Every structure is written in structure tokens, then in C-alpha cells.
Amino acid sequence: MGKLTVLALRAVLVVLLAGSVFVQAVMVPLLAIDLEELDADLAHLRTPFLVITVLGVVTVQVVLVCVWRLVTMVRRGTVFSHTAFRYVHVVIGAIVAAALLVFALAVVLAPGEAVAPGVVLLMCGAVVAVLGVALIVLVLRMLLAQAVARDVEAAQMQAELDEVI
User: Fold this and answer.
1) pLDDT tens digits for 48-106?
2) 110-119, 120-129, 131-140: which range is least confident on average?
3) Whose CA is closest to 79, among 137, 148, 140?
4) Contacts (Cβ under 8 Å, ≥6 apart) of 73
């Protein structure tokens, strides 16, 4: 990966991380204030909605930090090691957690007249899409495993060749 690509990706990661911190520090408290004005019959939705929102932002932050670490490993040429798997596993876990949070939000909003049934159905579709992203990352993890195995095999062959010479 070129230096310009790494720099551009890091710039995007910094902007996204700063935006997520802004959402946590400014937008969530404003949302909490807005939700205080809900009707009495919808007031029970306030706390679950805020908790799911904060946890959802945390899952995004976890993914951003892990991607930063993986980009660092790529830049150093150490991504084809077993250490990279730890970050990939955390990314997969965070994506699955995000899908579960979206599903939990759909469950919280489903009963009653808070939102239309079509919106809940769309949220369930979003859960399937987010789980699809987790599966894509899992496939990429399998490709990383193959690359690590090939790297180990190449190192062994190089060692054998060095002995012969």
C-alpha cells in the first residue's frame, strides 16, 4: 500500500472518529433533551433508544481503531502475521454487535404506534445487510489466513534454500 493511500485512509479514519466523538459528546445529549419531550406513552422508549445509540457509536469507534491498527501493520509490512487476526476478530465482533443493536432497536420500536411497521421491517433488512458485511469481513479473514500460511511457507522454503546455498 502506497504512502499516499495510507495517509488518505488515515485522514478518513480521523474524520470519522472525530465525527463519532462529536455525536457522543454533542448529538446524543441533544437527542436526550429532545426525547424528554415525548408523550407519556412513548417515554419508556427514551432510555433504550439512547443506550442503543451510544453503543452503536462505540461499535463504529471500535471498528475504526482496529482498521487504524491494521493499516499500521500494512505500512510496516507485518499484516501477514497472527497478530492481525486479533483486530479482524474484533472488527467482526463489533459488526455483529452493531447488527444486534439495530435488531434491538427494531424490537424496542415494534410494539405500539411509535413508528410504522414498514420502518421496523426496513430496520430488520438493515440487520441482514450489516450481518452481510460481517460475513464479507469473515471471508477477508479467510483470505488473510491463506496469505499468512503462504508467507510462513515461503519463509520455510527460503530457510531451506539458504541452507542449501
Assistant:
1) 989 999 999 999 999 999 999 999 999 898 888 889 999 999 999 999 999 999 999 99
2) 110-119
3) 148
4) 79, 81, 83, 84, 87
Q: Report the amino acid identity of residue 33.
A: I
Query: CA separation (Å) from 62 to 58, 109, 131?
Result: 6, 26, 17
- Are 29 and 55 a contacting pair, CB within 8 Å? no
- pTM of the predicted model as reported, rounded to 2 decimal places: 0.86
Report DSSP letters for 24-84, one per residue. IIIIHHHHHHHHTTS-GGGGGGHHHHHHHHHHHHHHHHHHHHHHHHHHHHHHHT--SSTHH
Q: pLDDT tens, 125-134?
A: 999 999 999 9
Q: Are 134 and 95 in contact (CB under 8 A)?
A: yes
Q: Are 64 and 17 contacting, i.e. CB atoms less than 8 angstroms apart?
A: yes
Which residues contact residue 49 at a Cβ distance below 8 angstroms, ignoring those fewer than 6 apart? Answer: 35, 105, 108
